[in-house]
Amino acid sequence: MGVQQKKTIELNRLSATRAAQLLARRELSAEQLLRACFARIEQREGAVRAWAALDKELALTRARELDRASTQGVLHGLPIGVKDIFATSDLPTRYGSPIYENHQPSMDAAVVALCREAGAVVAGKTVTTEFATFQPGPTRNPHNQAYSPGGSSSGSAAAVADHMVPLALGTQTAGSIIRPAAYCGVVGYKPSFGRSQRAGLKTIADSLDTIGGFARSVDDVALLASVLMRDRELRELDYDAKPRIGMYRTSQWRHTDHATRDAYAQAASVLSRAGAQVDEVELPPVLCSLVQVHADIMGFEMAQSLTFERTRHRAGLSSSLQALLDAGSQITAEEHRANLVRVEEGRQRAHSWFEQYDVVLAPSASGEAPFFDQGTGDPLFCRVWTLFGAPCVHLPFYTGPQGLPVGLQVVGRSGDDRRTLAIARWLLNVLRPGEGD
Amino acid sequence: MGVQQKKTIELNRLSATRAAQLLARRELSAEQLLRACFARIEQREGAVRAWAALDKELALTRARELDRASTQGVLHGLPIGVKDIFATSDLPTRYGSPIYENHQPSMDAAVVALCREAGAVVAGKTVTTEFATFQPGPTRNPHNQAYSPGGSSSGSAAAVADHMVPLALGTQTAGSIIRPAAYCGVVGYKPSFGRSQRAGLKTIADSLDTIGGFARSVDDVALLASVLMRDRELRELDYDAKPRIGMYRTSQWRHTDHATRDAYAQAASVLSRAGAQVDEVELPPVLCSLVQVHADIMGFEMAQSLTFERTRHRAGLSSSLQALLDAGSQITAEEHRANLVRVEEGRQRAHSWFEQYDVVLAPSASGEAPFFDQGTGDPLFCRVWTLFGAPCVHLPFYTGPQGLPVGLQVVGRSGDDRRTLAIARWLLNVLRPGEGD
């Protein structure tokens, strides 16, 4: 009964995996855990502002139900944050936009319902940028409130980093999971494209939008993903080989700061010493040109996906989003088709290129988080991987000169999610030893 | 001013293309056209039951606005039917399910908003089967009410066939556009996968759901599609070569009735005489085995997409859908991944196979529509094409022994939508000469 003797406030720091074990053994109650998370939220939310909607009584009612019930699934009793771009039947869903100030859906998004089916307690909705694009919400970086948490999954990354919840849902269309994970110093996982059902997600770019999540360890994020993708193999991350790692500076290396370069050099050296095969690699140059192709595909699709808002509620859109949609509207279907052909060629080249390496290790962002009033940062280092539908895992293991987190992303071959997560876990254990409960 | 002298009741039979010309020249008003369509609806809806929601006053208000405004776009003043699987901000959206009896979304689906931006008047919502799957709605085949209109886009196909509206939106996950088009005797077009944004569509299988439409001619359906896909090239369907046609009985030929076999033989002979290169072809046998793979991928994805309904409103689901979702829940992620690999291989083989032919001509359905009380028919002849993401156009040109429509579908290479539509137009002009206004 050791855990029950701990102060309530510390339960919120438990990993999801550990808490799930204690909950399953009934050594911890869902209500206790939720109360600890809400105590943290109440203490810190004024500074961090991670939440777009909270309903403590609703969550407590659900937690007590779970405490009375038999174990529902692998998330039984775990509090989660849900990015406010997913529909929830019992919490408002505003998409980070004043247009939807009073919007209450009648249903849960598919992944929210899957998490609930597996026993999760939705603690609340987390802040998203406007329609998961670039206009920031109110969320601050939990490590230093002068800085941005990144976007678009700002609240989910911040809430997990600040120990408000162990798990949170996010989405990535450009760099909306990996970048906030990097700025907030948590593990972010963007699965291969197409592995979760997006029903009830406010989609903005059908060929890019990908559902993923945040946690404080690879095991935890894989636990969540195993529910989102209904794939129990994602909970089996044993890996006892020595990975072949392609260290890749990317064509955007000139944009990296010293902290990222130091983290990169440290990773190369530490991983080598741990027995990994570490090679500096280059991708075929044609693939680098796809950064702009990603932006154009996203622009073309966004201008259509947000047609209702663009035509009927234009004044409710930020001026920067208006400009993005106007630019996207200028892209012709002919240009778009040519872009899709380039992507398909690129995907196939990347796919065969990956046969030489188990994973690529590359920057997640240019460096530490920008100041809050400078926006949520640039998805530059994520666009091509998202375009290829590759699984990406951000590994937080370094601290920059401002005292903010820095790390790198592991990129796997599209479809190789289990192996990518297993290697990510191996790498993080080497890069950040001794963490865990 | 010839058109204005016609009886109001006849305007509803105008093609979309012809009506759009008259509307643009202000020789026809949107209000006149809409009133003609509503006169037809009022006359026939009791028998056909194509509509899930109608609001004549709302539509008339919009038509009068358009009559006062400058021309908005290529659909200016054209009434359309919207399958009740798309969200509409001003009409209820029930997805063919009692669970959503009182559901009123706050937004228009992206494609509805695009049609409205182009000047379309939404006449109402058309009947869908339950969540666009198999449980029939009330719609009857307009040619003979003892028969099914097909599904899942039942109301859209029936409304267009019965001259209630010139254009209607549909979706296809298995055979939900091509099959009802075949049974109702209209042109149905399922575009290449991924060419329209699905925001606001109630998706059931993210890797398959495809937005398309219905009309009474290829020109008309291409006009609609040019808005859905924001691709003006789809309105340029001139084709003056002689197409190379692969006539393909498919591995399901044993399920075809005499009417389909007669239509097939007639097409081969008529098209040959018109100068087309007509070869009987076989696809690699491995591709035929993908019929079951399609069903399994759809089942796996549906069981997730409809998790909220499955877990929270199970009693509101038909027993047949409950059984489908239960079966889909039994498919493991490992099986699903293996299926995706087979599809990818199949797609690539099909893609290179298509280099020998401009299009494939194949059955759309086993034959004439089944009796109403026998369900909406089987998507057997559509599953593999949907799985490959290929553009498909149903061509109605034959009448079976029950007096019901029969035809064949044109299948193009994925991405070749313009050429597929252009050849479909050429073929229909040969197979059904002298139609049009």
TrEMBL record, chains A, B:
Outline the extent of the Amidase domain. Answer: 33-421
Which domain of life, per UniProt? Bacteria
Q: Which InterPro entries match?
A: Amidase (IPR000120), Amidase_dom (IPR023631), AS_sf (IPR036928)
Q: Which GO terms describe its molecular function?
A: catalytic activity
Q: Give a single Pfam family match.
A: Amidase
Its protein name is: Amidase
Source organism per entry reads Bordetella genomosp. 4
